[in-house]
């Protein structure tokens, strides 16, 4: 320990006591993953602190994954969060807590929860419109259903990986319209999708819908998410049953899950609807469920986009209500993502397909032009939300570096 | 026990020592689910037998789900199967084993494994052609990619349920082409999809493809599967990202998982390919991976179809190779299904959409006409495969009865 205590954060630290995201880490020289809470540039061993301070919730925190805490439900989430804030800020706990803080650069961060089902939505009107213009230049950019329901599909839960995991360029079939037959090889159009992921804590019962108003009883928190996409593989495979291998090779999530209770200042009204919604999706009278998140996308440290999450047409509450309206049940660990976040301006687009207009307009980066990702490129998504008293709440970053395709 | 031992099966019993499917059951008056093996009309408590007979594999069998056995890999599967066959057929074990056999009609059967990811394919040329003709009457029935790759998509693992679970008619949005806007309510076009599901045992490593030749090292066994489908919900939602709520309310699987080693006499060559396949899918020189399964579909006890699985264009081995060719990893408990099994003849079609040609030609059942399923209808899928010496191997049936939609 230096003379400067890790409990003394600079004013306005975006990982201060108003934030307190959860993760799972292993300290240097140990091999037992455990629940941690980020505080400044340190990680609190939350289970050890709970045991040391006699918390009634120690059993939820002395775990190798967040799932038991997530399953415990909102009253428990609020009680645990209040306890952790007290441990970190009450001078009376200082001596007990300080030894349980590990410098962030000395720990290994893990996938923080066991993913049950993964669903990806398509909720940005700007993204869906751009993609429609690129893929169907002679048709209406939005399909007729787009403004009536949040379009989504199931992705592969087993290949959700934590930030920092290398992403191997996928092999697969691709066929340009002019090619007589498909060819096989590494994807030549590997892309980012900058998204926000929502993590379900409390499960629901098969056959029962989760209404808009129950969103915060079920959703534990959120993460940043990069839904890596091989555009050439996707374009050839996706008719008629949707994306499959163009997406299933990897989906990266941040190591930190931000509790919804850390985002009280970030709730905002979603955009005005220009179609009447069916009652189960109609949020005109509901508590605003948009979120004012300011996202950034960087390639090799160079910012290429700043997508605003507040402009998303469909909210996460609507996505949850839609996903369960047919009676489908939720499990602890279900992950659902927003879809690519794109704003109305060119520099607010959340994927290279849009940023380079399908490769027509390459990006000029300090290390050369980019249409799609090259081997060795490192992509980093970051975001912040407004916090109390003018502060910011940082969301955990999600990074991934492209490794060359496997050959032979 | 009657004077007739449950170990003495009639000649040719389709659940004889050549079959030995695995399930999970709870005996009457007990509350601990455990691994069972079906033998005739009884279930062997496999973990208790393993313990009683000193099996080195008792830890794999004294479990509430099949996943530990499934994860153990093919040499263990073969050793365990050989042991169980010996326990059931060697007169020296009779006294120990007989008390561990429970009459099937006195036990509760459970979902036999924890489902990891669920993928549904679309592998019957007859089914895909019929569906294409119904939905796109003016276009080519098969999309250009269909004969180059086994089309598939991810479904919802959390709503896979065991045979016998009631299926609640889903609510959702549906919109006929002539309707000005979508309406909300119970699906009016609720359908069956008669399929075969393949259950992954041994996992694979992220980034590594599973070749055609490794199919039997990874796949533990198969089940019958009914991928219930709400055609009206599906038709409105599925462009451009594929089926979602039209499928995710329930997928029923049989309570019994048939080991691949029980199907030695059922392997058969798949249909001739009329397009050259890329090397990773080319099975011209491979061990035949088609399966001669004879399926039946019954509504309220009345057989409406007899789909032949041997005619499926894409084999399960090709599906597994395709699903992993982009580096996606397999987990123990991954379930992938064939897609609706339909043969070339009208009475071989595996769903009502085809059997009634989208409702145009109702079926005449003893209890009235059917276009799609009505509340109270019970659907049962059964199947058998050729076994040794002219015997049959029965696959476990999968049933489900339609319960009325939830209102209000």
Automatic annotation (TrEMBL), chains A, B:
Domain Fumarylacetoacetase N-terminal residues, every copy: 18-112
Fumarylacetoacetase-like C-terminal domain residues: 119-383
Record SUPFAM superfamilies: FAH, Fumarylacetoacetate hydrolase, FAH, N-terminal domain
Entry GO MF terms: fumarylacetoacetase activity
Key words of the record: Calcium, Hydrolase, Magnesium, Metal-binding, Phenylalanine catabolism, Tyrosine catabolism
Cofactor(s) this protein requires: Mg(2+); Ca(2+)
A family per Pfam: FAA_hydrolase_N
Biochemical pathway: Amino-acid degradation; L-phenylalanine degradation; acetoacetate and fumarate from L-phenylalanine: step 6/6
Major enzyme class: hydrolase
InterPro entries linked to this entry: Fumarylacetoacetase, Fumarylacetoacetase-like_C, Fumarylacetoacetase_C_sf, Fumarylacetoacetase_N, Fumarylacetoacetase_N_sf
Assigned EC number: 3.7.1.2
Gene3D superfamilies named among the record's database cross-references: Fumarylacetoacetase, N-terminal domain (2.30.30.230), Fumarylacetoacetase-like, C-terminal domain (3.90.850.10)
Family annotation (NCBIfam families): fum_ac_acetase
Protein name: fumarylacetoacetase
Source organism of this protein record: Streptomyces meridianus
């Amino acid at each position: 320990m230096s003379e400067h205590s890790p409990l003394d954060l600079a004013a306005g630290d975006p990982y201060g006591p108003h934030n307190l995201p959860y993760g799972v880490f292993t300290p240097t020289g140990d091999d037992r993953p455990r629940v941690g809470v980020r505080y400044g540039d340190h990680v609190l061993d939350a289970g050890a602190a709970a045991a040391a301070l006699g918390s009634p919730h120690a059993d939820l925190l002395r775990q190798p994954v967040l799932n038991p805490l997530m399953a415990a439900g909102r009253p428990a989430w609020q009680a645990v969060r209040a306890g952790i804030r007290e441990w970190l800020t009450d001078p009376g706990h200082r001596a007990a807590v300080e030894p349980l803080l590990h410098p962030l650069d000395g720990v290994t961060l893990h996938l923080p929860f066991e993913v049950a089902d993964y669903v990806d939505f398509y909720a940005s009107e700007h993204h869906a419109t751009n993609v429609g213009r690129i893929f169907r230049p002679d048709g209406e950019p939005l399909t007729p259903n787009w403004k009536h329901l949040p379009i989504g599909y199931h992705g592969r839960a087993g290949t959700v990986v934590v930030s920092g995991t290398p992403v191997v360029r996928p092999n697969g079939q691709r066929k340009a319209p002019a090619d007589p037959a498909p060819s096989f090889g590494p994807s030549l159009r590997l892309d980012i999708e900058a998204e926000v992921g929502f993590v379900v804590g409390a499960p629901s019962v098969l056959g029962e819908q989760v209404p808009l108003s129950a969103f915060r009883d079920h959703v534990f928190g959120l993460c940043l998410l990069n839904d890596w996409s091989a555009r050439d593989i996707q374009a050839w495979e996706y008719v008629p049953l949707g994306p499959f291998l163009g997406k299933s090779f990897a989906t990266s999530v941040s190591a930190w899950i931000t509790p919804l209770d850390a985002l009280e200042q970030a709730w905002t009204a979603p955009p005005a609807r220009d179609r009447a919604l069916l009652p189960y999706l109609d949020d005109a009278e509901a508590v605003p469920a948009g979120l004012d998140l300011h996202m950034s996308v960087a390639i090799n440290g160079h910012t290429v986009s700043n997508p605003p999450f507040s402009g998303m047409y469909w909210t996460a509450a609507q996505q949850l209500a839609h996903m369960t309206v047919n009676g489908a049940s939720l499990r602890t660990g279900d992950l659902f993502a927003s879809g690519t976040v794109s704003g109305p301006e060119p520099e607010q687009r959340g994927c290279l397909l849009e940023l380079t207009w399908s490769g027509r307009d390459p990006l000029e980066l300090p290390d050369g032009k980019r249409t799609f990702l090259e081997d060795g490129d490192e992509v980093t998504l970051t975001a912040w939300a407004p916090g109390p008293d003018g502060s910011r709440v940082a969301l955990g970053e999600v990074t991934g570096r492209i490794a060359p395709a496997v050959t032979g």
